[in-house]
Amino acid sequence: MVSEKRIAKGGRRVTAFTMHTECQAIHQILVFSAQIDDANKMQGAALKKEVSALKNLLETAILPAAKKAEFRGRFSELQEGIKQAQKSAGAASLQLKLNEAVTSADVAVALCQEYCVLRIDDGLDANAVREAASLVIEKHKYLAVMLFSVDEQRNKVLICAFVPNSAAKQGLGALDWLQGSLVPINGTGNSDNDGLAQGEGSNVAGFDEAMAMAKAYAAKVFAK
Questions:
Q1: SS3 state at 157
Q2: DSSP secondary structure letters along 88-141
């Protein structure tokens, strides 16, 4: 039996296979089961592509309803595995980018600089940029830092600046430092009055100028 459906009060339609069609359905079940087993051995893009193709085939295949439901359940398990793998890969990639920001700050400190202006890996969201700044701050409490992340596809630039008390006493304010760099990227920003300021702009073409202005402003303050 393939399906059973109510068509009117007291009436139901039952669809079933006999003889040749039944043999074809049994063969299809064996083929689908083997293909899903093979898909279980795949990873990454290959797995994602295979699951998508098999799902499309399943929708048009002539199979018993119970078997279709079973295969859909197996596909769901595979898709959940894909999501978990993507999540793990994304977390590992983000951690690598955050570590790179800290390493760049290490170089600035080794050169006895009182500030650093960094372009970290492109495409990070505001939370990731702030997290990168937090990691730098945690390790280098006396270093003024400004981080940029560029998303060229969305024409967006994110900025996060932190100014420790030691730098603030020399005249470097987080919001003042940030605002100069917002102009070239047509951006807006704000500060939480705790040495941290954030902003974003919608003109990627102005990024180089924004970064140059950030460096020039900090250099001028610390040169006093």
A1: strand
A2: HHHHHHHHHHHHHHHHHHHHHHHTT-SEEEEE--TT--HHHHHHHHHHHHHH-T
| Tens-digit pLDDT profile for residues 69-97 | 888 888 888 888 777 776 666 555 666 67
In the structure encoding, which two tokens stand for residue 193, read together? 């009055």
Cα separation, 153 vs 204, whole angstroms: 9
Please tell me the distance from the alpha carbon of residue 125 to that of residue 76, in angstroms, as a whole number.
Answer: 29
Closest CA to 161 of 187, 111, 153, 97: 187
Say whether pLDDT at 211 is over 60: yes
| Tokens standing for residue 159 | 């900025």
Report the top-level CATH class of 15-87: mainly alpha
| Separation CA 88–CA 94 (nearest Å) | 10
CATH topology of domain 113-222: Diaminopimelate Epimerase; Chain A, domain 1 (3.10.310)
CA-based torsion, 33, 38, 43, 44: positive or negative: negative
Length of the chain: 224
Q: Please name which of 17, 4, 57 lies closest in space to residue 33, comparing C-alpha atoms.
A: 57
